[in-house]
Amino acid sequence: LKPGCAILLPVPDYDLGSTLECGQAFRWRLSANGWEGMIDHRWVRLRQLPTGLAAETAVPVTDWNWLTHYLQTEINYAAMLAQYPDDAPLQTAFQRHRGLRLLRQPAWECLASFILSSTKQIVQIRQIIELLCRRFGEPVTAPSAQTWWMFPSAARLAQTTESELRACKMGFRARYLHAAARAVAQGELDLPALGHQSCAAARARLLELPGVGEKIADCVLLFAFGFPEAFPIDVWVARALRQFYFRGRNVSLPHLRAFAAARWRSGGGYAQQYLFHHIRHSAGKTADSLPAGH
DNA sequence: GGCCAGGCTATGG
DNA sequence: CCATAGCATGGC
Fold it and tell me: How confident is the model at residue A284, as a pLDDT?
């Protein structure tokens, strides 16, 4: 291990595997030596140890804030749990999946990834993103001499054609990704600025993008900007809400959104992620796309 | 082979 | 507000 390339973060209650595989981020891969992936321009390998999280980089690091920020290791986990005192379904999810965390991801990668996510299984989202990174991302060399690729910048994707993007098997989403890349590259959409606005204002701006509706906007608000009240509702979360809180009734999406906002308010983000993870792992799943080995 | 997937847009009640 | 077709692609 080269000097300056490793650190131990002594954080309890952190389930690294669940956190990296629960459908927030799409590029982490489990190897014999741990979870390997890219955080912005850096290659990283992470491992769960009894004493905390171990991280290894390819290039020496002096300031590790980028890593703790991404992993959100500084949050008060106990205080998060204490927000939902009488919520039986959530308490069950907390018990079964203790340590599941929300990440804080680079905004462009998050926006682009979730534009590509619509009506796709997680395994397919991963495949599309892998193709996209290999074709348009900057190469990075890992310690094993293996090549990784950075997530391609908006500027790079703005230079491509829609059909080049389609070649990455993203189908009708190519037009949406291309439009978002151009908006960011031309400065028409200032992603860093969105993080300093109110959640509602940032949401309204994201909703102006073609191919970005309420669900994808909420994913970016939660997973990139960290607005704690953001509550993305996909088919799984809708299923969980109807099953656990409406006796299986076919409640409409607008009604579910209003219900979640009123019930959980600023606890929505974590509630949503636990419900998503819980319903996907609960009995009855058959043909879904959970990662192998679970 | 049919159903479904971390949805959105357009159209018509 | 609600419901539905169409969209690309591929896992199961």
Answer: 54
